[in-house]
Amino acid sequence: xxxxxxxxxxxxxxxxxxxxxxxxxxxxxxxxxxxxxxxxxxxxxxxxxxxxxxxxxxxxxxxxxxxxxxxxxxxxxxxxxxxxxxxxxxxxxxxxxxxxxxxxxxxxxxxxxxxxxxxxxxxxxxxxxxxxxxxxxxxxxxxxxxxxxxxxxxxxxxxxxxxxxxxxxxxxxxxxxxxxxxxxxxxxxxxxxxxxxxxxxxxxxxxxxxxxxxxxxxxxxxxxxxxxxxxxxxxxxxxxxxxxxxxxxxxxxxxxxxxxxxxxxxxxxxxxxxxxxxxxxxxxxxxxxxxxxxxxxxxxxxxxxx
Length: 306
What we know:
The chain is mainly alpha-helical.
């Protein structure tokens, strides 16, 4: 029997074995809630609101402790830089196309997020793994160039020539990487981070340049460097990129909804695609029973046959 509770008064939690079992079903060290109380990692939410920045909250949620303001600012650089790369990026164009199909904003955003996989969206995580392996190599401190060359060769032997985090199909030099790299150098000079991940990345750049062509860090690469410098695990790298890119996906889906349009495909309707199937043909007589069904009409005439 449930105890009666007056209007406006929160119901007291049950105190029995069943309630305890339910409470044990989900365990979390992130958020503690009770009537009139919300604590994030032990901090009352009202003490965080208006005090810390959103990147600091991301850090607190994923890492369990608050960063220094300088660490949070460094994290902010990659969250800001990764939000968008124009509607030709698959995640953004898909969100826009979905928005023209009559779905809600959340559905359009989910459509874009769902294509952020190993190829589109996963390069940062993969680069973190590569650079992390280089930094952890026992010989890295004494011979970074040789270690980087060995790891690049091993990575390519296992995965092919593409190296995640280096080079860009649009930019010879990624302006986002240049700016974040400069801010990272400042942070290294101030002792906020060690600089080991950046040293590894520069060593990889030198290896690639030594093969005849400069292939500098792109946004995925510099993001990987920053996240490694800040101590984030590689597996979390993709989640943080998705968090950033979701802002762009939301903006593009919303803009498309304001513009209107119905069922927009990837290209204007006056453009077509390369059909590679059979030429026009008739349904076999065994299926038509000798009727005219399946025979070409005036609009679809078969070419003359000998």
